[in-house]
Write a structure and sequence with these properties.
Elements: H1 2-12, H2 33-47, H3 53-57, H4 62-74
Helix pairs in contact: 1-2
Length: 76
């Protein structure tokens, strides 16, 4: 979660941004569809993973996103 928080802080240019597993797009100013794509690409680059569209459509919050990243890292 710490590394994912760093990705969010970089994308949203917000050094004090704090995430919880329940954080959603509604909780962060500026999290729109364009920023969402930038966030996904930044996470792929940071963690060295690739996401399928179907995986991303099933995400409901930051906790789900972190779990997806963790599962991909374990599956290497």
């Amino acid at each position: 979660m710490e590394q994912l928080t760093e990705v969010f802080r970089d994308v949203f240019d917000e050094d004090e941004l704090t995430l919880s597993p329940d954080t959603t797009a509604d909780d962060i100013d500026g999290w729109d569809s364009q920023t969402h794509v930038i966030l996904i690409v930044a996470a792929e680059q940071r963690f060295g993973v690739k996401f399928r569209t179907a995986e991303l459509e099933s995400l409901h919050n930051v906790g789900h996103f972190a779990q997806l990243i963790g599962a991909k890292l374990e599956g290497r």
